[in-house]
Design a protein that fits this description.
By secondary structure, the protein is an alpha/beta fold. It folds into 3 domains: about 5-240, Alpha-Beta Barrel (TIM Barrel); about 255-320, Pdz3 Domain; about 330-479. The protein is built from 14 helices and 15 strands. The chain is globular, with a radius of gyration of 23 Å.
Length: about 475
């Protein structure tokens, strides 16, 4: 194996807890993220990894936290893990090394027969993410080219009896299957006890067939409005990507049967403090609650303030679902860089999908670290207006005006992919250079999301971030 690729594999396992075991998938989904990509991508299709390499990768897993199998890992194309001919042996090896480590498997479900379900039930804790996507075998054949279309529907019944918890996911395709199919798929997952249901806006690139394309904002609104009628079902329903405009720890849903389900907390509750400390984001609130045994929560719900002890063990998932916004570690890194570079002309680059989150962060920074304030310590996330509307700044300028030089929020479009692609992780060096050249301002420092680059500083096309510095003359800091 190429030493560079092996190093990427080892770092993926060590840093992210993701264990890639195969790039093989037994489907040909019309919405597959690996179809219709522009030429020039540097991605890795591994086939089935051999057992010897997988045993080596297991040595790099952290002792704490779950192991994730079947999810995308950097440039490595993910397949369905259950297609691996040595899948049973891999799980046995994992259990020998980590007897109680949670295994999270993402699968299309076509290999979930009784033997597989019984095997997994005996090697818990195991949790599944099942990519169902439609409501009938006939639809699975049309949408995913599933050669065993009945199996996943039979598997839902098997899972309900086995005690294995699972989450369901649906790539919403109403422009191909109709709205009735989406509603039936949601109801089916709820009927069989899915812990949560994630609805994904389908992605297409500028190379995709016309039938796969749609007006992005209009479709997002239609899906959001459509799923509102199902919000009273037992399983929490989440739309991805979420629309986030602040960093307040608002509960998006409660998993049935979880510790949180035994409390008065409900969707829409705002967690204002965990063990007496105000969380700085949704991610911060979740991490604090997850890490604590019997955390004391203060909250606001339907205009009423309350307090309760959430009875759970340390490390036990609480059953509270939050949209993901900003990790507190990232917030600390950003804050440190901004404070160290006061007086310089700064730009913080983000994607269309993350614009609301990063604007909320700049509002937080403006409020909490404004030199004009007496106390620069964290003071929560009371909104003080958009960062581009500080005194003396024209609306929409995107500059804080907090200090000489200011901070601009630059939103870069995913022009390399085009279509409906708006994620930060799919931005490229060419997208960033184009956005900088469109700005009429010069910058001393540009802050970039680390998710754009691999461990070598290269984007998905193999271009290094240093090329941005060379072509624009702007210094780069990766967050």
């Amino acid at each position: 194996m190429d030493p560079k690729l092996k190093f990427i594999l080892l770092k993926t396992v060590q840093d992210d807890g993701i264990l890639p075991i195969t790039s093989v998938c037994n489907m040909a989904c019309q919405f597959c993220s690996h179809r219709n990509n522009p030429p020039g991508l540097e991605v890795y299709r591994l086939g089935h990894l051999d057992l010897e390499l997988i045993e080596e990768l297991l040595q790099y897993l952290a002792p704490e936290g779950p192991v994730i199998i079947g999810e995308s890992a950097t440039r490595i194309i993910e397949g369905d893990p259950l297609t691996h001919p040595d899948f049973f042996r891999i799980i046995e090896l994992l259990r020998q090394k980590f007897p109680r480590k949670e295994i999270r498997l993402t699968t299309n479900g076509s290999y979930l027969d009784r033997e597989m379900v019984d095997f997994l039930a005996g090697r818990g804790p195991v949790e599944l993410n099942i990519s169902l996507n439609c409501s009938s075998p006939e639809e699975r054949v049309f949408l995913m080219a599933d050669r065993r279309p009945e199996q996943v529907f039979a598997a839902l019944g098997l899972l309900a009896k086995s005690g294995i918890g699972f989450h369901g996911s649906i790539v919403a395709m109403p422009h191909l299957l109709g709205w009735e199919s989406l509603g039936k798929t949601i109801e089916l997952l709820n009927e069989y006890g899915a812990k949560s249901i994630r609805i994904f806006l389908p992605g297409f690139t500028r190379y995709s067939a016309q039938k796969m394309q749609f007006p992005v904002e209009e479709m997002y609104r239609k899906i959001a409005n459509f799923i509102e009628r199902y919000m009273e079902l037992g399983a929490p329903i989440l739309l991805e990507p979420p629309e986030i405009k602040d960093l307040q720890a608002v509960v998006k849903g409660i998993i049935p049967g979880s510790p949180a389900a035994r409390t008065p907390l409900a969707k829409g509750a705002l967690i204002t403090a965990v063990n007496g400390e105000r969380p700085c984001s949704r991610a911060d609130a979740f991490q604090r609650i997850l890490a604590s045994a019997n955390p004391l929560l203060q909250y606001e719900q339907e205009g009423i303030r309350g307090e309760l002890v959430l009875e759970k063990e340390a490390g036990e998932r609480p059953g509270l679902i939050f949209d993901y916004d900003l990790d507190p570690v990232v917030m600390d890194q950003l804050t440190k860089v901004l404070l160290q570079n006061r007086g310089r002309r700064l730009a913080l680059l983000t994607s269309v999908a993350a614009e609301g989150i990063m604007q909320a962060f700049l509002d937080y920074y403006l409020h909490s670290f404004n030199p004009a304030q007496q106390n620069p310590a964290r003071q929560g996330f009371e909104q003080k207006g958009r960062a581009g509307q500080a005194e003396g700044q024209p609306e929409g300028s995107g500059q804080t005006g907090v200090e000489a030089g200011g901070i601009d929020l630059l939103v870069a479009e995913n022009r390399f992919f085009g279509g409906s692609i708006i994620a930060a992780g799919l931005l490229t060096v060419s997208d960033i250079i184009s956005r900088l050249k469109e700005s009429s301002k010069g910058y001393d420092l540009l802050l970039l999301p680390g998710i754009i680059f691999d461990i070598f500083g290269n984007d998905l096309t193999g271009r290094n971030y240093r090329e941005i510095e060379e072509e624009t003359g702007v210094a780069i800091e990766i967050i």
